[in-house]
Amino acid sequence: MDKSKIKKVVLAYSGGLDTSIIIPWLKENYNNCEVIAVSGNVGQADELEGLEEKALKTGASKLYIEDLTDEFVDDFIIPTVQAGALYEEYMLGTSFARPVIGKRLAEIALKEGADAIAHGCTGKGNDQVRFELAIKRFAPDMPIIAPWREWNIKSREEEIDYAEAHNIPLKITRETNYSKDKNMWHLSHEGLDLEDAGNEPLYEKPGFLEMGVSPMDAPDEPTYITMDFEKGVPVALNDQKMSAKDIILALNDLGGKNGIGLLDIIENRLVGMKCRGVYETPGGAILYFAHNYLETLTLDKMTAHKKQELALTFADLVYNGQWFTPLREALSAFVESTQQHVTGKVKLKLYKGNIIKAGVWSDWALYSEELATFGEDNVYNQADSAGFINLFGLPISVQAKVEAKNNK
């Protein structure tokens, strides 16, 4: 990359430690280039407060704050939930937020006539891949600047030193310097004491959890909820019609209060290493559970099993930043076709970190109490099963006879 040609850079800006120091670093190392900061609002709430003032004070020429929340929910979260896609239990909170932000970054960079796009992802992480694959889809010829792959800074402690030397205000201290990512779907925690796999997460320590409480601190009485779905999309919570976005926000509150959605995993990163993360996904955990619960009633066996197989591929694509690919689009088309009869109501009990089934109903239910009953029925002839077993077991019988003949 010819640095002399870089006059205007669009920066993916969160106001966190990495991107806070990147603005002055870009100006120092890229000929005092103009830096346009872009923050994609995917529901990080209070993290957006004071962001414009901070960006301008640290050297940005302007800040875009783009409301991507509806697109994030409708075009990324819901299709992933419908697919039942989980990456090693992880509900993909950071993974599917990056493509929607990367898409908007590319659009703004083209609109502004930028010479490059910059991001604050480390060379060890997955997000560098997710951002850059999205950028390649919408601005394939755009140069990309990743300071972590260039500068001499080697740790978050050195980043804090740089910030202090440049009078950049930070909301963290060296003691609370977890690497975090927050949006309306989840909050991730990495680093510090969590880097030792032998350390228990500090769930009961005040200030560690932000979206909820430890199950130990949850109420002693359960909370019952109902959720209605139409074609796999949540449309009502506790009999109140709501958008999918508002349902997720309400579930975050209900789930958080009951200690729902905590996940401590050592996951396999795309770049080859294992990494330990603690995730808070209170509303997401409930939504995944409720959707799957309804599917057990409405999907036939062959479709359900094939869908479970393809969910692993879907999750890999999302985790690896391959959202904007023909295969992901094809899988989403398959998933959408499976959702035509995923319509009904579920009832759940939330209690001290647990989600407990409490009832499910659908006009498209494939479950028949009359067929499944252990009592007397007039629709199932139990004598029919003898012939079925004879045919189903025919290869086994033939194999046994052949072995007996040859072993004499």
Describe this structure in words.
It is built from 13 helices and 14 strands. With 408 residues, it is α/β, with parallel strands linked by helices. The strands form 3 sheets. It has a 5-stranded parallel beta sheet with strand order 3-2-1-4-5, sandwiched between helices. A 5-stranded antiparallel beta sheet has the order 10-9-8-13-14, covered by helices on one side. A 4-stranded antiparallel beta sheet has the order 6-7-12-11, with no helix packed on it. It is elongated, with a radius of gyration of 26 Å.
Fold topology:
Layout: E1 8-12, H1 17-29, E2 34-41, H2 51-57, E3 62-67, H3 69-83, H4 97-112, E4 116-118, H5 127-138, E5 144-145, H6 156-165, E6 179-182, E7 187-190, E8 223-230, E9 233-237, E10 240-241, H7 244-257, E11 262-268, E12 274-280, H8 282-298, H9 301-319, H10 326-338, E13 344-351, E14 354-361, H11 369-372, H12 384-392, H13 394-406
Parallel strand pairs: 1-2, 1-4, 2-3, 4-5
Antiparallel strand pairs: 6-7, 7-12, 8-9, 8-13, 9-10, 11-12, 13-14
Helix pairs in contact: 1-6, 3-10, 4-5, 7-8, 9-10
